[in-house]
Amino acid sequence: MVITEDRLKQTFSEGGAQEIYQEVKAIGDFLGFARQYAFGEDYRVARSALWGLTKASTEELSQLQVILNELIEQAMTTDNSSVRRLTLNIIEQLDMKEEDLRTDFLDFCFEHMMDVEEFPGIQSVCMKLAFRMCKFYPELMDELERTLEAMETDYYKPAVKCVRNRILNGKLKATIRTFAPSNIKVK
């Protein structure tokens, strides 16, 4: 079956997302697929394309490294929470070097991880991304820790509390890819 915008508009299930992924995998052009569909104005098309891309391995998603900034822009500017969450999940799978650190994106992650009105999936991934970016600078890591310690945990869902606690207890390092060079130690 051919991937088209009309088909992506109709993808509403996990199975449909898996099918999209399998077809993109068969072609091997994750970057071309993302450029064609993940940034579309129709949020249903973008959501379905991104959902299919989240099924890809980290190695497969590495093709998207060249559009990291476009993905970051989309995450920060979209009005659609599904597109935001899926885009952030893809960003989390990409590498980021110290020179890729964007303070506007770090501020965005801090804001959305603390926003009790935000969806827990977005809060959690923003917290993970903030952690990874802050690892470049001890002063930022200190700020992140102070911010997390100040959170009123009664207002957050269990998933968010879990990520928060894992960061504060130094246990998150084993579950996410690090942005930091290997010579920087994880607390």
What would you say this structure looks like, in words?
With 187 residues, the chain is an all-alpha fold. The protein has eleven helices and no strands. It has helices at residues 5-9, 14-27, 30-38, 43-53, 58-61, 68-77, 81-93, 103-114, 120-134, 138-150, 158-168. Residues 174-187 have low confidence and may be disordered.
In short:
This protein is mainly alpha-helical and 187 residues long. The chain contains eleven helices and no strands.
Principal-axis shape: globular
Average per-residue pLDDT, rounded, comes to 90
SS element count, helices: 11
State the distance separating the first and last CA atoms.
48 Å
Uncertain segments of ≥5 residues (pLDDT<50)?
A: 174-187
- What quaternary form is this? single chain
Largest sheet: none
Derived from helix and strand composition plus strand pairing, the structural class reads mainly alpha
Q: What sequence of helices (H) and strands (E) makes up the elements?
A: HHHHHHHHHHH
* Radius of gyration from CA coordinates: 17 Å
The helicity comes to: 55-70%
Question: Tally of extended strands?
Answer: 0
Strand content is under 5%
List the SSEs and their pairings.
Blueprint: H1 5-9, H2 14-27, H3 30-38, H4 43-53, H5 58-61, H6 68-77, H7 81-93, H8 103-114, H9 120-134, H10 138-150, H11 158-168
Helix pairs in contact: 2-4, 3-4, 4-7, 6-7, 7-9, 8-9, 9-10, 9-11
